[in-house]
Write a structure and sequence with these properties.
binds zinc ion; Defensin A-like; three-stranded antiparallel sheet; alpha+beta
Amino acid sequence: MSDEDYEKLLDRAFSQLPTLSASKEDFVIPRADMLIQGSKTIIRNLYPIADKARRKPEDIARYISKELSVPVSIDEQRMTISGRFTQDELDAKIHKYFEIYVICKECHKPDTHLESADRGMYIVCEACGARYWVKGY
Ligand SMILES: [Zn+2]
């Protein structure tokens, strides 16, 4: 077989592979890309996390701040947390945020948005149409 034929064969093989879609079943809750600096913990991937959640970085920062009961700030897309926290502690909070405020409790898909409401918000699922109230933070 000539090189050319082989390449054609490869092309065909690749074109027949199922497209790798970002299917919702594959949705993975992101982990914190963190480092400790002195007495502070930095999350370097706040913006990618927010993108994935389709929420504002400030909202996620506020949630983590409240959960950890410490002040946080955002500077050049990095989130700085007062105090030293472990990877597990931060991942647990991020996980909880997604579970409560991002992933639909009916169909478990992350295609949701929030509508503000009395003492909390409604989660509106764009995948299955569910709409339910959750407590604010
Ligand atoms: Zn849903």
